[in-house]
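Practice problem: predict the structure.
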Amino acid sequence: MQIAIKGRGIPVSDNLRERVEKRFAKVGNQVSDLATLEVEIRRERNPAIQESEIVEVTLRLKGVTLRACERARDLQTATNMCADDLARQVKRHRDKRRRRREAHAHALRPAL
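Answer:
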């Protein structure tokens, strides 16, 4: 899986990049190597907003695009919540594809 990390108004340090790649490794194990993951990190500038760190994730797979967006007080929490949400979506997508494939194979099987 290819990961692209963009920071809007936030510099993307090597430490941050390493943390994001480590956190999304679980998702990377479940998808093909051709999948692309775009992570966009930004900070809300309004001091009245408590949850100012925003992480948006877009995962492009063959035929489907999965998205997740989370807000939190700190960047690590937002990243963790986003990774959990995306992992749940990938698992659901894989299960759905598996059920369709099994149903199709069952329908093609000759009746006894």
